[in-house]
Amino acid sequence: MKNFITIEGCDGVGKTCQTALLKEYCLQHGYDNIVFTREPGGSKIAEQIRKIILDANNAEMSDLCEAFLYAASRIQHLEDIVKPALAEGKIVICDRFVHSSYAYQGVARQIGLSRVRAINEIAVGEYMPQFTVFLDLSPEAAFERKGGKDVTDRLENVDIDFHQKVYSGYKQLIDEATDKFVVIDASGSTEQTHQKVIDALIKKGVLK
User: Fold this and answer.
1) What pLDDT is stored for residue 87 in this prediction?
2) What does the mean pLDDT of the chain come to?
3) How are strands ordered across the β-sheet holding 4-8?
4) Interatomic CA distance for residues 88 and 132, integer angstroms
5) Are the C-beta atoms of residues 106 and 72 closer than 8 Å to each other?
6) Could you tell me the pTM of the whole model?
7) How big is the chain by its Cα radius of gyration, in Å?
């Protein structure tokens, strides 16, 4: 979908930080046609579903339940935020989207890519990203730099093997559709990664 850009990466890689820096950059440079949002969440009902998904007290949640909750949150988020913004001719930049479900639930949870894609084909329809910015950093390096996992986040509390599978899942997705991804080396400083993101969006014509 034209003008719909997503940002992906493993837990701890700095996605949320980079999205915030990008938003600040756009505000400072007069871009008033860009909507920033996130998943899971982004709108009232979708944020309530987010709380259920990430709550560390819900450790017994089944993998398939998790996959359907992500898809449910995605449906509401699309209806409330993404579709209206795109209809108004705006650019939407989203912190995580459907590729997270493919990597986390499809590969790492071993539900299967085909099953998770089928669930999300209903949820997403034609609203697939024009392209996805992938912040590339291994989970080991990401958590080391972050200073450990967030114990209140159910997904971050899973063992490192899970996060390694997530990383492999992303790499598989990128190999399958290299033209739909912009891979950013996120091993440098926050400022260096931020500049790489800006440069990539300028090259893609999103920014000037």
Assistant:
1) 98
2) 95
3) 34-38, 91-95, 4-8, 131-136, 181-185
4) 21
5) no
6) 0.94
7) 16
